[in-house]
């Protein structure tokens, strides 16, 4: 068993191994993670809009997260962690694939960024508290979504924000993400299991069971002309934001 395939409680070993095998190309916008590069701008915009609104921050500030601890769970090689660090966050990021963490550390160092990368699941942060916890396109890959959400909730500081994203379990996501994206090689085959996708109501139920309150649901839609963009349509993929 290679390093990426070690079990970390919440993470399925085979899922960690799959994403660890993509580590070398993670920062290549034309490689196996090209789809994630396209997802990142609207993802970052949503995070920025959310924190500005929740904490009444200056939307013109270049470093609005100064003084805030942020954790990214299932960080891959750092596509979201790096821009959050540039926004001033004291950044901690974890991933179950050791290969991803190795690539992430090297890339951050080359960018002059200080990010505390750790190999593991959310369990690696037990006992710590964060102002913002993000976990993007991860919950569909974990062993127990309810326990995973409860673990993330435990990481939140009293005025903290949890932002999750995941594909919706809908006919459109089956067609777009598996039939088209995997079928035509836009993402590696085996990346998704449609049966593991959660509907917004299912994810909200897990969040509420963990003692949090859902404050926002936002869609991520796709068009040939505009690519991925924030939307009120939750059918393909969506963000769910919660607080205590």
Can you describe this structure?
The chain has a single domain, classed as 3-Layer(aba) Sandwich (Rossmann fold), CATH 3.40.50.150. 33% of the residues lie in helices and 24% in strands. The chain contains seven helices and eight strands, in the order H-H-E-H-E-H-E-E-H-E-H-H-E-E-E. It has helices at 13-20, 34-55, 81-86, 98-110, 145-154, 171-182, 200-209; strands spanning 69-73, 90-95, 115-119, 130-136, 156-167, 213-223, 227-231, 237-243. It has an eight-stranded mixed beta sheet with strand order 3-2-1-4-5-8-6-7. Helix 5 (145-154) links the parallel strand 4 (130-136) and strand 5. Helix 5 (145-154) crosses helix 7. The N and C termini lie far apart (39 Å).
* Share of helical residues: 25-40%
How are helices and strands ordered from N to C? HHEHEHEEHEHHEEE
Question: How many β-strand runs?
Answer: 8
Number of helices: 7
Q: Which secondary-structure class do the elements indicate? A: alpha/beta
Proportion in β-strands: 15-25%
Mean pLDDT: 92
Give the neighbour order of strands across the main sheet: 3-2-1-4-5-8-6-7
**CATH homologous superfamily classification:** Vaccinia Virus protein VP39
CATH class: Alpha Beta
Uncertain runs are 1-8
| CATH architecture annotation name | 3-Layer(aba) Sandwich
Outline, from the CA principal axes?
A: globular
Q: What radius of gyration results from the CA coordinates?
A: 17 Å
The tally of structural domains comes to 1
